[in-house]
Amino acid sequence: MTPPPRSARHAVRVAHLGLGAFHRAHQAWYTQAANDAGGDWGIAAFTGRSPEAARVLAAQDAVYTLVERGADGDAARAVDALSRVHDGADGDAWRATIADPDVAVLTLTITEAGYRPGAGAPARVLDGLAARRTAGAGPLAVVSCDNLPSNGDVIREAVLALAAADAGLSDWIRTEVSFVSSMVDRITPATTDADREEVRRLTGWDDAAPVVTEPFTEWVLAGAFPAGRPDWEAGGARFVADIEPFERRKLWLLNAGHSLLAYHGLLRGRATVAEAVGDPALRDELELLWSEQRTELPFDDAVVDEALAALRDRFANGRIAHRLAQIGADGSQKLGPRILDPLRARLAGGRAPGVAQAGVLAAWARHLAGSAPADVNDAGAAGLAVRLRDARTDRDRAALVLDALAPDLTERTDLAGLIADRIASLQGAPA
Ligand SMILES: NC(=O)c1ccc[n+]([C@@H]2O[C@H](COP(=O)([O-])OP(=O)(O)OC[C@H]3O[C@@H](n4cnc5c(N)ncnc54)[C@H](O)[C@@H]3O)[C@@H](O)[C@H]2O)c1
Ligand SMILES: O=P(O)(O)OC[C@@H](O)[C@@H](O)[C@H](O)[C@H](O)CO
């Protein structure tokens, strides 16, 4: 039996691009909470690259099982907030959806790499917005839900850059489209066959597209919704004037910690976050990084202490198999916001570069240079990996890393020296 028949098919008023696991565990879950509280907001979700998720979900009427996996057990429920799913390559359906005057919000999970110059997603957003303008369908809110600081501004700039040749369209976007930034948090690994089997055991449902996530969830948003929005507060979302402190707290503690565990952990033969934090050497390295990055956060100690206490538990949840290889993908796009930004803040405050901060950069360099090309998933670092392999000294490797991630810091000889030392010390790390 597939998941149970939907309880309702809400009118489509939200569009989404990037139908991955995280959208289903996060934004769709908040929309479900809004609908459970009396709302009427259906989502039309489009895949970003492969059509597979749309194909599989369409076969079960877009209803799927969400499993909240705590340290002590699982809780499963059916989610029917997705009213329609589409292959993202279906440009007609995309334009028709964004041009629908009932659609008030477009959410995005297109990965950090999806915002790089030349990535297709901003052009698709622009294509949809142009159709909406032509249809006279009125204003829209575009909400970025990827792990990037000021993510709403990033997508806005990318879309406006592409629209620059069309003054009328650019003006319309500036006046009618609100780009909302959001901090999103819910650890959601890619779904595995074992997850599908567990859902069958728990519920009796033969669900080809369940999603397994942690109980913890957070969504903080800043920006206007000129055409309305779901009551996402029903799921605990918060709307704030200034998103930056919340983004920093999350990127500099959780995501930075994940990147540290990914690169150091892979070098030490660990496969998941929980395995990595079970390794005392990695736990010490993680605590050192947190001590280096927390000093730059605009929160009271008590707030940071509470966030870190929660993170220690969340990372140690061995029932969530969050693969380090997944987290380690696209380091060239992720390490800037996670490590370089807080490192710059330290230096601006007159402090020395952090030893663990340098260690993450060193472990990334070793990961790029020492892994088989097939084990490195980072299109933005392909050339760097070759140069790192060819480099003669660790000092040269440190310079290459800084040149790639932080050209503004290449003159910091103390930082380059620290990274080189850490690269050298990692060469002897046990596997
Ligand atoms: N999984 C998590 O724990 C988590 C938590 C917070 C934030 N996020 C954010 O959500 C993103 C997606 O995570 P996920 O777990 O759903 O991954 P996923 O691999 O399940 O899905 C990624 C989605 O992004 C799409 N995509 C990738 N590159 C794209 C591009 N260039 N243009 C358009 N779409 C593109 C894919 O087609 C897919 O639909 C992350 O990269 C991150 O920024 C994830
Ligand atoms: O999803 P990514 O690829 O941006 O980064 C991997 C993890 O650090 C990330 O997914 C976290 O699990 C997530 O940000 C938790 O909310």
Overall strand count? 11
Bound molecules: nicotinamide-adenine-dinucleotide, D-Mannitol-1-phosphate
Give the oligomeric state.
single chain
Q: Total domains, how many?
A: 2
Q: What is the top-level CATH class of the largest domain?
A: Alpha Beta
Give me the Rg, rounded. 22 Å
Q: If you had to describe this structure to a student in words, what would you say it looks like?
A:
Belongs to the mannitol dehydrogenase family. Residues 13-233 form the Mannitol dehydrogenase N-terminal domain. One of its GO terms (biological process) is mannitol metabolic process. The chain folds into 2 domains: 12-241, NAD(P)-binding Rossmann-like Domain (Rossmann fold); 245-426, N-(1-d-carboxylethyl)-l-norvaline Dehydrogenase, domain 2. It is 49% helix and 13% strand. It has 18 helices and 11 strands. It has helices at residues 21-25, 27-36, 52-58, 91-98, 121-135, 151-163, 167-176, 193-203, 244-267, 273-277, 280-294, 301-316, 324-328, 331-348, 355-370, 382-390, 394-405, 413-426; strands spanning 12-17, 42-46, 64-69, 74-79, 82-86, 105-108, 140-144, 177-185, 211-213, 218-222, 238-239. The strands form 2 sheets. It has an 8-stranded mixed beta sheet with strand order 5-2-1-6-7-8-10-11, with helices on both faces. Strands 4-3-9 form a 3-stranded mixed beta sheet, with helices on both faces. The longest helix has 24 residues, at 244-267. The termini are far apart. It binds nicotinamide-adenine-dinucleotide (NAD) and D-Mannitol-1-phosphate. D-Mannitol-1-phosphate binds at residues 112, 147, 185-187, 254-255, 258, 327.
